[in-house]
Amino acid sequence: MSEVLLKYLPEHAVEPVFELIKTNSVHLKIVNERVTRHGDYRRHPSGKHQITVNANLNKYRFLITLVHEIAHLAAFEKYGRMIKPHGNEWKITFQRLMIPFIRPEIFPNSVLPLVANHFRNPTASSDTDARLAFALKQFDERKPDIHFIHEVPSGSFFRIKNGRVFQKKGLRVKRYECLEVKTGKLYLFNANAEVEIIPG
Q: N or C end of the chain: smaller count of CB under 10 Å?
């Protein structure tokens, strides 16, 4: 198991993660990418705890996702099944489980302070923390034709994963206002949404 984890995690996180998996009797499945989620936790009727994590995540995102899901399991076990999935009990559990990993041997300097800051009050998804999400994305394997929306020139047209086409308009507070060409509706995009620029 440790050898498998080494492929997906920072080297110094492998042993402590392996301990978390053993302690919590987790059946870990590494699965193909799902666009809507990085990972999930399920308790089967048999009582078996299954966690799935997307195989395409970079090592730092994989670590945060796996600990996020183990925190669901640990919070349900400690506080009962009636708690909110991302309520205070989960936040406290996630913080406690994550603290041993917030170290320079595990996270690079460009990410470490942002991770430390995020875990003062973790959210349901680290994607909603724009600065942390952007820092983590620097370690993704990016296709050459994919850009972050903040890199797209104003007025340009772009395509998202499902093929819908938009035109970038202006910045509204922290998100970009974009017009969907087909419907004429305005949508807001996070600065680090990944899109394909349409030439011309």
A: C
